[in-house]
From TrEMBL:
Zn(2+) binds at residues 88, 91, 159. It comes from the Bacteria. This is GTP cyclohydrolase 1. The keyword Kinase does not apply. Pfam families: GTP_cyclohydroI (PF01227). One of its GO terms (cellular component) is cytoplasm. GO terms for molecular function: GTP binding; GTP cyclohydrolase I activity; zinc ion binding. Homopolymer. It catalyses: GTP + H2O = 7,8-dihydroneopterin 3'-triphosphate + formate + H(+). Its EC number is 3.5.4.16.
Amino acid sequence: MGSYKFFEEYNHEVTDDLKNNYSDILKGIGEDVTREGIVKTPERAAKAMQFLTSGHCQDPAEILKSAMFAESYNDMVIIKDIELYSLCEHHILPFFGKAHIAYIPNGHIVGLSKIPRVVDVFARRLQVQERLTHDILECINDTLKPKGVAVVIEASHMCMMMRGVQKQNSMTTTSGFRGQFEKIETRNEFLKLISSDLS
Ligand SMILES: Nc1nc2c(ncn2[C@@H]2O[C@H](COP(=O)(O)OP(=O)(O)OP(=O)(O)O)[C@@H](O)[C@H]2O)c(=O)[nH]1
Ligand SMILES: [Zn+2]
């Protein structure tokens, strides 16, 4: 493990504060907060919310820097189908799906697991899908300084499924490209590789 900080423990002050607020929310929807099934719910929800937003106090650049290795490989590296779970900042409801990420090294490669870790740090914040896409893109670009980086995210938004417009099958795709991926041939090669099933 690198020197960067993972989510390790709950902050007791934050837990207490959130617990009181969740208790008020339950009362607000007419629940009896003393009944057996939900007596511990404010605390559970307080801890869940801390975990789901724990990316706000983690530094994704540190994660990448902790496992960068000098290497002369200078072809495309693709990590596809990285599952992600985030919360939309408008309704605080989940959106979830997959990220596909590629970079072309420029003297350094990065430990493969660090890319999904960076996805998690940015996803565990209140987000919109567009900003999540660019946060990941810019972090890899600025830290690894590769010849190019590409990020595609495909996600379903619970705020569009369970409520509101109530569309169950719509999928939102966002993408960002820097450096060599701004060239159409390189971008197309990446898009072709993430849509093919080589297994
Ligand atoms: N662009 C973008 N919009 C999002 C994202 N997540 C949720 N939204 C949208 O945020 C918008 C908020 O619109 P509002 O009109 O203020 O909220 P609302 O009345 O709850 O809207 P409806 O969801 O249409 O019922 C909605 O259109 C959501 O679909 C996201 O990641 N990106
Ligand atoms: Zn939403």
